Amino acid sequence: MIEVCLLGNGAMMPLPDRPLSAAAIRIGGEVILFDCGEGTQVAFRSTPFSFRALGTILISHAHADHIAGLPGILFQIAHATRVEPVRIIGPAGLQPVIEGLLTVVGGLPFELRLQTLEGGDCVPLVANATVTAVALQHRRACLGYVIDLPRAPRFLPERARELGVPIEYWRPLQDGFAIGGFRPEDVTGPPRKGLRVALVTDTVTFPELAEQLQGSDLLICEATFVDDEDEQRAIERGHMTMRQAADLARASNSRRLWLTHFSPKVLDPLAHQEAARALFPEAQIGYPGLCTELSFEDEV
């Protein structure tokens, strides 16, 4: 299962009723934070997640509305008595920005590890989940992320008994390891679909993007501008319109779409809910506190 909570839906600057765009994700008890603009630590407190469990922070890029809240987040993790390492993942060029922000943090009771990625890099995340970096097109180096939680094939105990597999071999075989002359495929069913969450902000749309997000169960995507007449402005500023985000969800065969990162000029994002669903039936205008649980298909 993957739990996802949207912490904010704003762009550029936090507003009284619109925290900056960020999301918290929990997999197997471990929490991952996507972006942390100013005030994210406050929005995080409205989730059912704990700072103590927050061990990975994904940064899209080094613009203030996506990273300036890092000192507060790190302080809260420290205050929650975490001592295990915390990993920050982001694009190249992030290190001097983080070093500057750390000057106001002071000592931390945990090791802080920075891992820079390029588009296409795939690294372990938590449990058996992975995260793949997606190179985006913005005004500076920027990454989107695809989180995949795979699912093992179903174990077939009847087949194992027929083959005379000792019961002490069952667990290694279920975990994908060959043992005692038996192979996992001897006692498991066909491959099963896992879960995928895609995180995309900030970027213009481009042809190759949809392919990298294929089959997402949930696509969290920027829609900085909601009106079609702002398309040229969106391109010039490295962003997308709501229609472009909906087109991306459709082209990537995503099941659900959460729209976020709205310009301050969008006075009431939720007023555009009907228009969003006209563009993509499973679209949801994102808002602070929007949460969902993604389960494997036969567990729903």
Describe this structure in words.
This protein has 300 residues and is an alpha/beta fold. It has a single domain (2-153, 191-295), classed as Metallo-beta-lactamase, Chain A, CATH 3.60.15. It is 22% helix and 26% strand. It is built from 10 helices and 14 strands. It has helices at 40-44, 64-67, 70-79, 95-102, 157-162, 170-174, 209-212, 231-237, 242-251, 273-279; strands at 2-8, 22-27, 30-34, 54-58, 86-91, 112-117, 122-124, 130-135, 143-151, 192-200, 218-222, 257-260, 283-285, 291-294. The chain has a 7-stranded mixed β-sheet with strand order 6-5-4-3-2-1-14. A 7-stranded mixed β-sheet has the order 7-8-9-10-11-12-13. It is globular. The termini are close together. The model has no long low-confidence stretch (mean pLDDT 95).
Q: Assign the CATH topology.
A: Metallo-beta-lactamase, Chain A
Spans of at least 5 consecutive residues with low confidence: none
Strand order of the largest sheet: 6-5-4-3-2-1-14
Count helical runs: 10
Roughly what fraction of the amino acids lie in strands? 25-35%
CATH architectural type: 4-Layer Sandwich
Compute the number of strand runs: 14
> What's the SSE pattern?
EEEHEHHEHEEEEHHEHEHHEHEE
Query: Describe the biggest sheet?
Result: 7 strands, mixed
Mean pLDDT: 95
For the termini, the CA-CA separation is 10 Å
Structural class: alpha/beta
Assign a percent range to the helix content: 10-25%
**Rg computed from alpha carbons, rounded to a whole number of angstroms:** 21 Å
What is the CATH class? Alpha Beta
Backbone shape: globular
- The CATH H-level superfamily is Ribonuclease Z/Hydroxyacylglutathione hydrolase-like
Q: How many domain units?
A: 1
